[in-house]
Every structure is written in C-alpha cells, then in structure tokens.
Amino acid sequence: MRRKQPSAVAGDPCNSVFLVGFMGAGKSSVGRALGERLNWVFEDLDNRIEAREGRTVAEIFRDSGESEFRRAERAALEAVLLELRGGGARIVALGGGAFVQKDIAALLKEFGAPTIFLDAPVEELWQRCSTQAAESGAERPLLRNREHFRKLYGTRRRSYAKALLRIQTGGRPLETIAAEIAAKLKLKEIALRTEEGEVE
What is the pTM of this model? Predict the structure, then answer.
C-alpha cells in the first residue's frame, strides 16, 4: 500500500532543522537517521545544488570557482526556505563551508529554524573522511594535507559554534544522536497517512 508524503502546517514553530559542521561530522548520516525517526524529509543541500546546476560540487569549484559555487549555494538555500514557508517538515544538511558564509547564516537566522552544530574530535573527522574517500574513490582536495585540514577545522569551528545547539557525534550511534536532537528541540513525529486517510 502506498503512503502519502508526511506533511506539516505552514508556520509551524519548528518544521525544519539545519545541520552544520565540518566534513565528516555526520551531517548526512545523522540527518537521515533523524528523518527516519520523525518521518521528516531529509535533504542534503549539495545534492540540490548539483541538480540545479547540472554539475557536481567539485566541477563547479574546478570550472567556475568558489564565488560561483557560493552563489549557487545561496540560491539553493533560498529555494528550500521558500518551500518550507509553504509547509512540510524537513531536515537539511549544509555543506561544510555554508554556515561560515555570513549571508547564509543571516538567511537562516531570519528564517528562525534551529541550527545544529554536529562536532567530533578533528582526528576522528580526518579518519572518517579518509575512509569515506578511499571507499568511494572520490578525490577530496581537503584531504591532501592533514595540517591544513586541522587548521581549516579550527577556523570554521568558530562559525559553527554560533549554531543553536552543539551535538557531539564522536563514537556515538546514529540513533542516539538523533534521539538527543529530537528531545532537545522537542521535535514531533509526523503520523503517516495511508491512501484511505488512516493514520498509521
């Protein structure tokens, strides 16, 4: 039996959550786990950017530079916020450099949705990213220099710290992290309705 998409009323005090943090912090994994827990839609903003631009994030950076990527990133976020104003419930993972951008941070602050800084020890972040890159075969420029990775984390962490909440992901199960976020924000599960309109 097919199920209808879960929905939320426009103007709900908390119908969205934005996850920020450095690469490897677990934004996508935690976002998916939280979405499953609450029956909310999960979206990775980088995926929307790639769909809108018809290129991967790496290709945008390589062919058009960071300024063009940041333009595309802001446009994608504005589209997400417009959709959320119309209703629905969503968890959105932002790219590692997004929340560092003042215009992005200002957009989220004006919108009023909670921002969650997912953090872990920098050595664990390095190991996670290295393992993921090796398994996927993807080239990640930030992994070419360990010391640069550490310095960039330290620089960006000051911006991440401006998020509403900071949640540790180091060495913790995804379900435990998702449960903590849901409890601290008092997020509510959305009942799924069948085609006949019955709540499950």
Answer: 0.86
